[in-house]
Amino acid sequence: xxxxxxxxxxxxxxxxxxxxxxxxxxxxxxxxxxxxxxxxxxxxxxxxxxxxxxxxxxxxxxxxxxxxxxxxxxxxxxxxxxxxxxxxxxxxxxxxxxxxxxxxxxxxxxxxxxxxxxxxxxxxxxxxxxxxxxxxxxxxxxxxxxxxxxxxxxxxxxxxxxxxxxxxxxxxxxxxxxxxxxxxxxxxxxxxxxxxxxxxxxxxxxxxxxxxxxxxxxxxxxxxxxxxxxxxxxxxxxxxxxxxxxxxxxxxxxxxxxxxxxxxxxxxxxxxxxxxxxxxxxxxxxxxxxxxxxxxxxxxxxxxxxxxxxxxxxxxxxxxxxxxxxxxxxxxxxxxxxxxxxxxxxxxxxxxxxxxxxxxxxxxxxxxxxxxxxxxxxxxxxxxxxxxxxxxxxxxxxxxxxxxxxxxxxxxxxxxxxxxxxxxxxxxxxxxxxxxxxxxxxxxxxxxxxxxxxxxxxxxxxxxxxxxxxxxxxxxxxxxxxxxxxxxxxxxxxxxxxxxxxxxxxxxxxxxxxxxxxxxxxxxxxxxxxxxx
Length: 533
Known about the structure:
The chain is an alpha+beta fold. It folds into 2 domains: 7-272, no CATH class; 312-481, no CATH class. The protein has 17 helices and 17 strands. The protein has helices at residues 12-23, 27-37, 47-53, 72-77, 79-87, 97-108, 113-130, 154-175, 189-199, 223-233, 239-254, 282-289, 294-304, 320-323, 327-334, 478-500, 514-523; strands at residues 45-46, 57-59, 94-95, 137-141, 146-152, 221-222, 266-268, 316-319, 341-349, 352-363, 378-384, 388-390, 401-403, 418-424, 427-432, 438-441, 464-475. Strands 8, 9, 10, 11, 12, 13, 14, 15, 16 and 17 form a 10-stranded antiparallel β-sheet that branches. It has a 3-stranded antiparallel β-sheet with strand order 4-5-6. A hairpin with a 3-residue loop joins strand 11 and strand 12. Helix 3 packs across helix 5 (79-87) and helix 8 (154-175) packs parallel to helix 11 (239-254). The protein starts with 11 loop residues before the first helix and ends in a 10-residue tail after the last helix. The model is unreliable at 1-7 (pLDDT under 50).
């Protein structure tokens, strides 16, 4: 297998492959998986055995009314064979240890995002051809790089995104300590429309406010532009494939006895939207997670798919339709939470409630009562009807403004009360009034903190004041942040209760109390008081 007791027996090629695999932390699991899959006589893995490792069954059915292409189940049936054919190249009919390592590295090794996207698109192109779909992409491949040309239709992109969702969900399901529940396919229309708006030719631009079906869109999206769109908007999209291959092989190494379970590798491909909050559903949450990395991405993933209904409360801090509108109600629910926060705002134009949109703000620290901008990092999101992300530009740090009523000190020129994100004082990119009744969105020209781009379709240069329908806040700091907030609230409640207590003994000596002396001075300040000696 290549697990030689002496490194001198290794070829340079094997040593290099094992070194790269070890850098990913998966070498031990790969050795176990190879031992389980390989034929002892040939010391290689039969192609059908490795294909079986990546297979899964599909439950549910597609429904044209829910815009799921009927070709999608056929496409998924060729996923496992395409992975093996493309990345686990074999010269002798079986996959040797070195070929197994190289295949894993191509799928799940550390590489630049553009190379990972190229691999994902090559995989989708191969699957499409095997499924009998028209060949729309041409791949010029060499050992160093592969260049892809051609185009995809919006329906192709929808199937590509749905395939990534299945692979992403599969990897989460295998690594989860508890059941994640039923998956289903989320609505990815907001992502497809984002790509169409970014990649389509100028004469093919859509009216993004129309609720047209993706199945009806006859537009060609150049693959090169799709790659650029994905790198900017959903940079973690290609990781879905790498995580899928990694999770399957690691699970094989650790749970060989469970591989024959009928429901372990089955996935629901019927359209189904799970909701975490009123504004955040699984499709929107997944899109948000694809813009993040590390711990924050994991927390976003957990918030997407609570395994039990009560776990929603572990993330939902505030919802205006539930807790009441207004800055005070908002503040009483988010105060003391010292962790990343996702704030979602849904609104519509004053004179046109048909044009409804959702925008979001992600800040990486809790909110504070300040009369000026503060913060270290964050992102703005256009979430519906089109998804886009606007990361920090690095030019300014006006990330968030959250100001309650002024403190005890007298201020002749009090600062505005409310919430704001980006821009500058009096010229904020997003500002929410004290009553949570209206939100004002300004053109990106006023904002040097976040990158440029419209927060909703057809946003003009003039500030637009819209009516707020709902505001939602989710905490992404994990259990520790929520426990700290609970402790903070208990201390505040105890402090408030102590302030309300009245010392009855003080009423027994009124003549000597400071309160009476002050009242006497106010009633007759010129009264001469004689000092008693």
